[in-house]
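Morning, I've got a small favour to ask if you have a moment. I've dropped the whole record in just underneath, so have a look.
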Amino acid sequence: MDAPRIVERRWIEDLLPGEAQLRCFYRRHGKVIDQFTVQLELNCNGVWLAVVRYDNAHGFSHRDTLHADGTQEKTAVSMGNLNEAFTFAIEDLQTNWRGHQERFLREVGE
């Protein structure tokens, strides 16, 4: 039997064109995701800055909340599997991006 095909996909989803976007990536073997990143980015004075990132680096699924001062908070994301964690990450940021935007802009002082 052939080994499952490895597929990688990257894309950007505009949430508010020129202002907020999701940068998404996954790698899967067959239908099973083994690596992913979903990152909310805001355009601040012409520079895209990461504000929240979900990924499974460091051996576990987690959310990094990135602050304007360069610090970050890491929160574990407990899901059944990486496919579910990836879907959750996209849906969470599509739904809640404005709250993250408001928080970050307050920190920046805009």
Notes: The chain has one domain: 6-108.
